[in-house]
User: Which sequence fits this backbone?
């Protein structure tokens, strides 16, 4: 039976209860509506609620055959919506999502009700569109499934998240993005959700040995099942060949997940060489605020995905994951406190003219109590997404120091290290300009030294940001040229003013013809690109002589000065550096 739709005064469709259900009484103008039996009123009320929550209502049998439809056509049929009756729902579901919708049907039968999940439907003209499919079953109507379809906008994940193709899971980057969104939403809306990490040990090796059809059954079956249990149907990711992450409702049990995966593999004739283990994290952990809790979970997921061999075996998964999560929460808490309390110091090391000893500029370096290595501190801040906050704070701290000594006649220029991750942030330029603007002309004393501790995948985008900075007067320096991250691709793709040659080549070239050949090559390339060169880690006179012989005039290293907290020394008398600034200890 199809429920007809009437037009209201605004021309919108509204449900009308058919005579078989009970008449809708229309009162005369100015008169009060006659009272109807409570059962009829309740029925109308629930119909109203249903249409308020969905564009289309569908009843199917256990096989998906449509028994009833009412509401908007949603482009699923050319004619009246009643024309869907007698067809199978899978006929209007995009092919890549059909196995996934079967999983949703199974979950309705198991759980009695599922929250709306994102499904890709196929219109009568072949065009595909997203909608939210929800459903429930009633004990009073055995064999029937009651479904709602709500049209929705195309899926858009947060910055940096890669959306999955039809029928596939998110990749590691996409899952990290959706995970952050889900955690923030769960905290804001009070949702009870969990994160499960799943290890199917040996899965990749197994599917590679299976017949093509059977292998596809395993891959598609696992993808469909994990999407089916994930929040909104779009919160599951394949992190590596045998590791998965799923954000889901709190009623999902790890043992249940393992059992379903095992059934999928067995049904396809597979024999898994390893075991299946899952580990569920509490997304409601309130030791950190929502944003930092999201960072801790994303960091743990990334560590889980990249762990090698015995780091995350079946036997060590739970213990290793717990240690990772606990360690991430503790370290992020410490890092957040360091940023909020400015609990770090800045030391300065000069870059000098080798021939004259004159200071060209200073480099601002950070030191944090309790961190054995500044590089470890920066790398962890990048991994958990706090480097952006730290870089802007460092910029402000150095400008405050320049402000303090601005009356000195020999005020030096200062290079600040900004992570490539910070520079690639879509809101960086606006935030950076807001930080430097209050300092006026002092901002021109800054050089921006680009650190690439991770490989930059979009050199053109990074160069675009750097050119906008150059246009406003900032000079750009590429750090650690020759090191693994700052590649020749970066040299050719980024227009800069200075390039710093990684110190291992400067030191190694003294005794190694191979390192000397590499050093000559880097010097030649940089010179052809119009870059002024700086040699790093110059600790002995022989290093300085070698650079001079190659035509490199600027250098940095212990031969000239150790990093010093005594900015006043360089501000008051920096024309020549002989013994270096006085090194002051914190406190």
Assistant:
């Amino acid at each position: 039976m199809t429920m007809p739709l009437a037009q209201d005064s605004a021309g919108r469709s509204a449900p009308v209860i058919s005579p078989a259900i009970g008449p809708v009484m229309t009162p005369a103008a100015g008169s009060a509506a006659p009272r109807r039996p409570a059962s009829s009123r309740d029925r109308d009320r629930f119909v109203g609620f249903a249409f308020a929550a969905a564009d289309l209502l569908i009843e199917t049998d256990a096989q998906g055959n449509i028994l009833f439809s009412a509401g908007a056509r949603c482009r699923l049929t050319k004619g009246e919506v009643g024309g869907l009756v007698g067809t199978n729902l899978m006929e209007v579901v995009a092919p890549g999502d059909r196995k996934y919708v079967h999983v949703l049907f199974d979950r309705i039968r198991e759980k009695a009700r599922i929250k709306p999940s994102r499904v890709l439907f196929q219109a009568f003209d072949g065009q595909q569109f997203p909608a939210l499919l929800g459903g429930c079953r009633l004990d009073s109507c055995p064999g029937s499934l009651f479904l709602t379809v709500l049209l929705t906008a195309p899926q858009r994940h947060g910055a940096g998240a890669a959306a999955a193709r039809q029928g596939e899971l998110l990749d590691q980057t996409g899952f990290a993005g959706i995970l952050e969104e889900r955690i923030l939403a769960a905290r804001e809306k009070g949702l009870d959700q969990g994160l499960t990490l799943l290890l199917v040990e040996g899965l990749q090796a197994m599917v590679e040995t299976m017949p093509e059809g059977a292998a596809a059954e395993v891959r598609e079956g696992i993808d469909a099942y994990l999407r089916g249990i994930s929040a909104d149907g779009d919160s599951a990711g394949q992190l590596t060949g045998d590791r998965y992450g799923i954000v889901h409702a709190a009623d999902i049990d790890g043992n249940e997940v393992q059992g379903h995966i095992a059934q999928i593999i067995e049904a396809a004739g597979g024999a898994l060489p390893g075991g299946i283990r899952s580990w569920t994290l509490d997304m409601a952990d309130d030791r950190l605020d929502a944003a930092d809790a999201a960072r801790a979970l994303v960091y743990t997921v990334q560590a889980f995905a990249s762990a090698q061999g015995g780091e995350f075996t079946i036997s060590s998964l739970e213990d290793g994951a717990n240690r990772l999560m606990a360690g991430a929460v503790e370290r992020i808490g410490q890092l957040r406190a360091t940023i909020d309390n400015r609990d770090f110091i800045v030391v300065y090391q000069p870059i000098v003219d080798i021939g004259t000893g004159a200071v060209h500029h200073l480099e601002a370096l950070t030191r944090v109590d309790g961190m054995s290595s500044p590089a470890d501190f920066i790398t962890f801040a990048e991994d958990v997404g706090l480097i952006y906050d730290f870089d802007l704070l460092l910029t402000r701290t150095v400008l405050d120091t320049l402000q303090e000594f601005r009356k000195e006649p020999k005020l030096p220029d200062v290079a600040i290290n900004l992570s490539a991750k910070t520079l690639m942030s879509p809101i960086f330029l606006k935030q950076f300009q807001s930080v430097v603007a209050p300092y006026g002309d002092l901002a021109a004393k800054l050089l921006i030294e680009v650190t690439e501790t991770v490989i930059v995948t979009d050199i053109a985008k990074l160069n675009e940001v750097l050119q906008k900075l150059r246009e406003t007067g900032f000079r750009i320096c590429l750090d650690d040229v020759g090191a693994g991250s700052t590649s020749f691709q970066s040299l050719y793709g980024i227009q800069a003013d200075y390039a710093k040659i990684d110190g291992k080549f400067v030191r190694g070239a003294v005794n190694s013809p191979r390192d000397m050949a590499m050093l000559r090559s880097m010097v030649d390339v940089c010179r052809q690109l119009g870059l002024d060169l700086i040699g790093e880690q110059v600790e002995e006179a022989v290093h300085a002589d070698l650079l001079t012989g190659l035509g490199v005039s600027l250098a940095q290293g212990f031969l000239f000065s150790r990093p010093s907290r005594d900015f006043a020394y360089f501000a008051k008398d920096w024309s020549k550096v002989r013994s270096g600034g006085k090194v002051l200890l914190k406190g």
